[in-house]
């Protein structure tokens, strides 16, 4: 008898939870539909023709940007945006020990650009004053770490906002480096 009551109470609790979840979803979906409908109406105004000219009609009840869901978030300033950066490499096919030129083009607000490799080394880029391109040289490690190396390039602006992009080098074509062996009799 207790087992039956316990099972019934579990079923009632599950039913109540499911009903609550369904009600929350229905209310949320209805609210979303109303917002998207109002933004569609605001995006396509009706045209009232009068004589030879046609003018958009003011929709009844539409208050423009002050309407709920129709406003766009404002950005406080240009400094609050992260910088932009893109990376290019001479060749993504490299051999162990090779030196590679890594160049980055960044937005004008960037104050520093850094390269980081999987070994944990971080090195700064230098900006070419004439072209505005950031450059650094990277030596591919001799350590056998696989066929690809991922390099991250991070641009930082004066407001300490940053943007990171990744580029990958494929190691191949050279001899694999093996540790020295000792001959024993």
Which helices and strands, and how do they pair?
Elements: H1 2-43, E1 47-50, E2 53-56, E3 85-89, E4 93-94, E5 99-106, E6 110-116, E7 122-124, E8 126-127, E9 134-139, E10 148-157, E11 162-171
Parallel strand pairs: 4-11
Antiparallel strand pairs: 1-2, 3-5, 5-9, 6-7, 6-10, 8-9, 10-11
Question: How many H/I helical runs?
Answer: 1
The CATH superfamily label of the largest domain reads Immunoglobulins
**Overall number of strands:** 11
Strand order of the largest sheet: 4-11-10-6-7
CATH level 1 name of the largest domain: Mainly Beta
Cα-based radius of gyration, to the nearest Å: 31 Å
How much helix is in the residues?
A: 10-25%
Oligomer: single chain
| Integer average pLDDT | 72
Number of domains: 2
SSE order, as H and E? HEEEEEEEEEEE
Distance between the termini: 83 Å
Describe the fold and architecture:
The chain is α+β, with helices and mostly antiparallel strands and 185 residues long. It has 2 domains: 2-66; 78-171, Immunoglobulin-like, CATH 2.60.40.10. The protein has one helix spanning 2-43; strands spanning 47-50, 53-56, 85-89, 93-94, 99-106, 110-116, 122-124, 126-127, 134-139, 148-157, 162-171. The protein is flat, with a radius of gyration of 31 Å. The relative contact order is 0.13. Residues 29-65 and 176-185 have low confidence and may be disordered.
Concise overview:
With 185 residues, the protein is of the alpha+beta class.
Key attributes of the depicted protein:
single chain, about 180 residues, alpha+beta, Immunoglobulin-like, 2 domains, 4-stranded antiparallel sheet, disordered C terminus
